[in-house]
Write a structure and sequence with these properties.
Blueprint (H helix, E strand, L loop, with lengths): L4 H27 L7 H30 L8 H23 L4 H10 L1 H18 L3 H7 L1 H8 L2 H17 L5 H26 L1
Length: 202
């Protein structure tokens, strides 16, 4: 299935608006005081969940293209990746602002002391160069091969994000969603390994 440039622009515009909805829903909840008994936990959980959702959607692009043959899906990968970074930034900002009131020294001590925060912070830091090099200009500057190698960091970032989620849920003994994310990520990364091995045999 191929889309004309006009059709693709329409599809991309719709998906852009849909991907923005969680943010606007969160804003409405803030202004209507509808964040529940623990507002900080609500915002932290909401932004963290959507970060993982968009990371998984980004990983889905290549398998979906291979399976259903919609080449134009690849052109959406950058947008979904940037949305993952956007929600990850909100997630980190919530931690820095509400948990530590922009006290960087205190935040850094927390990062070092608590393993689940260390893992989550590492995943966020690794996301930064991917977001900064997402433009066509940066692709040309780095060169296609170096750019591709850099953006393979996502294969490390997503498991780190899932591990962060596991550890965060450990205190509540609620592993249903972390296991779901782990299963999805295992399938998405496992498929890539299988395809790469098959390609080498040809």
């Amino acid at each position: 299935m191929n889309l004309s440039n006009r059709q693709f622009s329409i599809v991309k515009g719709i998906l852009f608006c849909v991907a923005s909805l969680p943010f606007f829903r969160l804003l409405i909840a803030v202004f209507t005081n509808d964040l529940g008994a623990n507002p900080i936990e609500f915002i932290t959980r909401n932004t963290g969940d959507w970060t993982l959702y968009f990371l998984c959607i980004t990983l889905c692009i290549t398998p979906a293209r291979k399976i259903i043959g919609w080449v134009w899906l690849v052109r959406l990968r950058r947008m979904f990746g940037l949305y993952a970074f956007f929600y990850a930034s909100l997630h980190f900002l919530t931690f820095l602002w509400f948990d530590h009131f922009f006290d960087v020294a205190e935040m850094w001590a927390d990062v070092i002391k608590r393993p689940f925060i260390t893992v989550g912070f590492s995943a966020f830091v690794l996301l930064i160069p991917l977001a900064l090099t997402s433009t066509n200009k940066m692709i040309k500057r780095l060169g296609s091969k170096r750019w591709q190698w850099l953006h393979r960091l996502v294969y490390l970032i997503v498991p780190l994000g899932v591990l962060h989620y596991f550890w965060m849920k450990a205190g509540k003994h609620d592993f249903s969603q972390p296991w779901l994310f782990a299963g999805i990520v295992t399938v998405l990364l496992g498929a890539r390994v299988i395809w790469r091995l098959q390609a080498k045999r040809v």
